[in-house]
Batch of 2 targets.
Target 1
Amino acid sequence: MNFVITGHKGLIGSFLLKKLIALGHKPVLLVDLREGKNILNLDEMKLSEPADVFIHLASFCKINKIIQDPTLAFVNNSRGMESVMEFCRKNKIKKIVFTSSSRILSKEKNPYTASKIYGEELVKGYSACYDIDYMIVRPSTVYGPFNDETKRLMDVFILNALNGEDLKIFGK
């Protein structure tokens, strides 16, 4: 299987990329801002070969920063999702795996959850109009043996514990 993957330098993406390659699958385009490739510029990128599936993991996921600056969700997550879906349509990629968030099921609503709900609905809309099959994944509390430098709560707790530092809790 040939695939495109965004966010392959993050926690989930780095492990998934290695696993897919180990299983004999081939990346035909890797897109990660940490390598200077922005999903907003997908229309300027070319596939090395036709792709069977597009795996979209890239997202701005720091909710506290998004609440301070909602444009981070709109630009990175919403416009990024539009860019991904148009890339799939124009390149005749017949399947997308979209990483949403379990947070969309919570009562708390904010620009981050709105951007993920929008992403899910956009995927469904493109599926209905352009016959693009999809899978939506809603991970929760992602952590693992990898420091992706996003300073997620579980990552911070684990690193502090390993280093013998205090586990700081903020809030009421």
Note: The first strand starts at residue 2 and ends at 6.
Target 2
Amino acid sequence: MASLEEIRATRLDKLEILKKAGMDPYPNKVPRTFCLEDAKINFSDYEKNKKKVSLAGRIMAIRGQGAILFVVLFDGKDNGKAKFQAVFKKDVIDEKLFRLFTSAVDIGDFISVTGTFFTTERGEQSILVKEWTIAAKSLLPLPEKWHGIQDTDERYRKRYLDILMNQELRELFIKKAKFWDVTREFLKSNGFLEVETPTLEITTGGAEATPFKTHHNDYDLDVYLRISVGELWQKRLMSAGFPKTFEIGRVYRNEGSSPDHTQEFTNMEFYWSFANFEDGMELVREMYIKIAKEVFGATKFTTRGHTFDLANEWNNIDYVQEIKRQVKIDILTASNKEIADKLKSLKVAYEGTSKERLVDTLWKYCRKNISGPAFLINHPVLVAPLSKKIFGTETTQMFQPIIAGSEIGRGYSELNDPIDQRKRFDEQKKLIDAGDTEAMMLDDEFVEMLEYGMPPTCGFGFGERFFAFLADKSLRELQMFPLMRPKGK
């Protein structure tokens, strides 16, 4: 078998053959009457009237020999399903053009063919080629058709080939685009205004995560890439008088990598004035069902070892009571040591010794036993620094959809009490001072906005992780171009 270097050398020779024949291997345009999808739609009319037509695409297969060749063209239309057969007959096409094709063209090349439509004896729609020209000469071979690229690292580095050869993956990315289209359409149809908020921030807010830090040269100022989709900015818009807003955009978190954790991903957040968490739960359930039906054509899914139906009743699960039920500990009264000892007895690894981190780790152990669909409610204040308290308690008006043992989204009756917010920011600052890189930064200007007044508001957000769960794929697999270390490092 020839090496990659030998194949490339041979194709470079073929490149010179094309040039010597007077054919530009990389023209800026080639004849094209239709995309391949439209060629099929217009086939009958053009075949009947023997109209001349030009098609273009990448060669995915060549079969036959001698006086006749069958060439399969592909141009990515019709969700990647559009392929069309071009037939080269030695007694139909100019002999020099036929010889040039056989001597200089390979699978993977892009070509344009001109001729007339006809149906083969096997009933396949085809074009009988009278002329052809190169559109782009490939110097490296495509992966083997039936197996594609097997090495995961290589698949992610050469995603363009992975998508080209893997129809299932191509369709997943098309579904992912539809996932966000349906989300956007749903929110707009419910009166939400789409907005854009800063991605560079002086202080990060809206989530607990380690941010990426960079430097603004003009202002000589360190700034952070946002870790939420403008939560503190959209709340400012509630104060400004916008009744409903949402944003779909990229967020960045400087955290560890795993199949279900990436440093860059897409999230959505909406904010709804004069609404509370119960209003949000009703809207979110409706939105999740609509997304599932329109994108996947189903509401019942099996993923991560769980089966759930989004159309079923969504039960409410109490955060404190569920932990007490599963592991027999009351997190509101237990000491840090008692929670740490419980984690050790359950053989659960944990990082950090703050009560917030210990409680969060214990909950993550419990959640894996819940298939859902359900809403997790009544979170303790220490794990929900931006959520309004339930009056007279140490729990909050926060809610999270639970499916397949994970939280897939997060919402609140947003905290609009400036004095309470200041206290919670102060508690987060103590965590930062103690070395917690994920704690929330103090934002004085946000507190000032709250002192001017923000109406009762429900906020909610979810990300492409929801899509990954419905598709039963890892989040990393569904990144079109995952971040990779440079080769050799």
Note: Residues 167-189 form the longest helix (23 residues).
